[in-house]
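To whoever is on call:

I kicked off a structure prediction for a single chain this morning and the downstream step that reads the tokens threw a length-mismatch warning. I double-checked the sequence; it's 424 residues and nothing unusual in it as far as I can see. Pasting both halves so you can look.
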Amino acid sequence: MSTLEATTADAPAVVVRNPVETRRRIRVGVIVGISTLLMLWMLLTTKGGDVSFAPTSPFDENQLSPITFPAQQTALISLIIVAALGLACVFTRGAVGVALGFLVGVAFLLGFLCWAYAGQPLPITNPLKGTLSYATPLIFGALAGALGERAGVINIAIEGQFLAGAFAASVSATVFGNYMGLIGGAAAGVLIAALLALFAIRYLVNQIVLGVVLVVFAGGITSFLLDQIPQTKQLTLNNPVVLQPKAIPGLSNIPVVGPALFTQTVLVYIMYASVVLVTFLLFETKWGLRVRAVGEHPTAADTVGIKVRWVRWQAVLLGGVFAGLGGAFFTVGTNGAFDKDISAGNGFIALAALIMGRWHPIGATLAALFFGFVFQMQNQLQLLQRIPSELLGMTPYIATVIAVAGFVGRVRPPAADGEPYVKG
């Protein structure tokens, strides 16, 4: 063996570390460390006694007995899980890392609930129904955003589509019946989507600025139209009958989850079907392949004969249907009469769910459910009066920042997202 070969063979292997992965490990490590310290503090301050979980609400037909478990012992087990699986998250990435992060979040939540409910007469109520109620419009909005942004058009105007859809649904349902309200809401969402497509695709307006302008426009026009309805005409123009829940035979009798998932309004059932439909269209059809192509590399798509602008128009207008249905949820789905700013910024939360879900319909749906769950738990915890309401109001956004920064990791939008296409 030559001297060069011997030297090469004896040389230590050089380990090349990815700086992105190193930063991810640091972020996750910091989050896990803080979470473990918080869990330790909650364990030390958890009162003795038991915590009760009510799997059914008082309105369910099939009542189940509450489940009781010791608060301090459960908090200790949660602390061990958070520390052990959190450490594993630091060195694990991909789908396994996300799954471990989810389990860490569940364990942390369980320990937190033990701390909050220990010694309290109120049980932890089943959060599924409330979670679904909060998440339904967010899912519709996220689906609208997924369609547009997969085609390369940023949709900041989801909030505006919610407002327009809510107003149109209220008036249409009052005049023609509540199911016509769904059609009216969808049509209003398409109208705002058409304005977005016209100025973003045809006139190449900056899509971020355009989305904000459309939100302001929708808020202004709906407030103006509401003011034009005289008080004497409110009952005949802005007083829709709210959709009533309809149980699915068999499925609604499943313990714990059945009443929450399968005793719902037709709008929620449409939401279930919409998630499946959008996922199928984007990833199992030729049209979906074209949408993703113009969102990733429009020039290449154009060279093979795909009409980039027309495909973007189609995706944005279809997204308007779902956003309009999301707006209808705020009136004919839950609240009834339209009021100014009734969507309360949920369009922007839907946009955050889209990003958190990595521009995928299934991921965005899970992120929207996460938002809905946090909002539901926020309402439950307000009854205990152990945590300031202002801090509780921040929890959905803090939880999202933690999830995106640590456990979800880097997210990459479609390559041509927000980039206007000019045919060469």
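Update from on-call: the warning came from a stale cache, not from the record. Cleared it. Sanity check on the structure: The chain has two domains: 25-125, 128-387.
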